[in-house]
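Suppose you are handed a protein chain with no further information: no name, no annotation, nothing but its sequence. What can you learn? This example shows the usual starting point.
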Amino acid sequence: MQAAEANAALGVLAERLEGAGSQAERVAAFEAAYRHVAEWRYQVALEGVWTRPGADADDVQATIGEGEWMGYRLSPGAASREPGSPAWKLLSELEQVALQRLGGEHQLQNVVTLRDGTTVNGNLLHYVAAPRDPATGAPFPGHPDQVRTQTAAYADREVLRRASFEALAELEGARTAGTADVRDPAQRQAFADAAYFLVQGPEFRRGSDAIMRTFLATAHTRVFDAAPVLPQAIDLDGMVRGQEGFSRVMHEHLRPAPASTGTGPTSATTTERAVPTRTRPGGGLAR
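A reasonable first move is to predict its three-dimensional structure. Written in structure tokens, the prediction is:
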């Protein structure tokens, strides 16, 4: 379903980019493709696909407004899931990354450096200590310590999402000039930056990770004429690892996907690194 939508958005992008002669027109084209993917995710939710218990399809269309935020609980022991499962391993790894970055503090502000060198506040990480038993100093049963994420402020998310479209529009300019090259380290970094900005700027209460992955598959296919392999946990990697750590993950895992039979060189598919399935914990940006 995601691959089919990525191909549909690719058609929207190609149509909007035809004859686009300015950076502003290219930015508008990528935003239009993003909007197409966002509407698709909403329609999927209306059909009852990929909705979590207690979630409403309208949450996929509802924006995280001014003064609001969404959180994601990273601690695998804080929710019911099977120890040793792919989801448990993934969250355990990211929880440890978050704790190392927190360095004993209770809050960490991620700061994002844009392509022009300016900085914007991204998401926050929180360590939430559980109530302790005075006799033992250990958390009370059923109330473990938790590590959580918190989305950036509304105005900062708007800047970050726009910065993502701008970085992709610059790559489209290179494509038009015939200089786009998926093997070029600087251009790969530009795409990784665009992905990071997008992850740091989620717009909707639900569904943002599927929107991001599908849109990024579309954008990569357009600018590099090759569908990408994207990290499995691209949304959580971006929120937990920080900009430098996210770039390392993208450097390790981002690569052109093997060509799909019968779809042609400009067909978008989404291939993800090996975590067979992933159970979403409560709260946060569910796909």
